[in-house]
Amino acid sequence: MSAELAFNRSADVDYGVAKEIAPDVRRIVANNPSPYTFLGTNTYIVGSGDVAVIDPGPADAAHLTAIAEATRGERITHICITHSHRDHCDGALPLQERLGGEIVAFGPTGTTRGAGTPGLGDAFIDSAFTPDLPVADGDTVKGRGFSLDVLHMPGHAPDHLCFALVGKRIVFTGDHVMGWNTTVIAPPEGNMGDFLTSLDKLAQRHDRMFLPGHGGHVETPRRVVRAYITHRKWREQNILACIDDGVSTIPRIVAKLYGAIDADLKGAAALSVLAHLEHLIARDVVTAEGATDKFSAFYVRAASDAVSSSS
After folding, report:
1. Nearest to residue 239, comparing CAs of 272, 213, 215?
2. Which domain holds residue 302?
3. Separation CA 221–CA 219 (nearest Å)
């Protein structure tokens, strides 16, 4: 099983400049680079005359001014949010106050939000984010000259949406599928089972292009989705191999599988392993002894071994 993913990590970006990347689709990149946001958050302007803004990004004055300049003489009718992580949604209210538009998002999920590592914790998530117009899977956001089908794709976040531009075979994928890196799945915010189910759903489509929340566009959508699925299956098999070898705590699994990973990303790696373990436990493939927490001594063993030891 191959786990190779062909990433595009080109660093060519002009912050604050609106660039047309498809007919009636412009992109502006926010100047908020980080290990989790890559070069910055992509904001998309869809349509002409009456337009939708997808993911206005952080509450950054320069970025909001760039959106205002790019839409001068036009009317923003909708501000669509893929998910309520602050690098995507914090600019929504300031943009609305400045230029108008109805804020569209999934809305509160009623689930526990956040993840216990720097850069992914509560400060990174607006768990109280509430849109003007809550939407669900199968809904359509319509404006003069554009229609966006709503696809609920939980996994990275429970409220994650993708927006499919009707008639163009283009999907704005937020953080669900990106071309520069794999998507972080960090419990309890992230759920591996939901993520894989969402990928399977996306794999059934016949899209021409993905426009993600970070990094460049994806020109081979189905191939990339299949590669994402293969990568996660490969990672799961590696984790099971660790368990079979007696490497059965999350810190030791991370050390074996990720090697000399950047210290800033070790917490995310531990949460990714935890997400895989939760998915394995839910399917009765492994059992856990002790707290299911990345900070605990989280011992796991094959479920068949657990049955044998208790008989």
Report:
1. 272
2. 236-310
3. 6
One pLDDT digit (tens) per residue for the chain, 311 residues: 444 556 666 667 899 999 999 999 999 999 999 888 889 999 999 999 999 999 999 999 999 999 999 999 999 999 999 999 999 999 999 999 999 999 999 999 988 888 776 666 767 899 889 999 999 999 999 999 899 999 999 999 999 999 999 999 999 999 999 888 888 899 999 999 999 999 999 999 999 999 999 999 999 999 999 999 999 999 999 999 998 888 888 888 999 998 877 777 788 888 899 999 999 999 988 888 766 665 544 556 655 554 333 33
Instruction: Identify residue 123 by its one-letter amino acid code.
Output: A
Q: Are residues 64 and 110 in the same domain?
A: yes
CATH number where 199 lies: 3.60.15.10
- Give the domain CATH number at 283: 1.10.10
Q: Which residues make beta-bridge pairs with 29?
A: 42
Are 268 and 210 contained in the same domain? no
- With a threshold of 0.85, does the pTM exceed it? yes
Give me the number of domains the chain comprises. Answer: 2
Does the bond joining 58 to the residue before it have cis omega, within 30 degrees of 0?
no
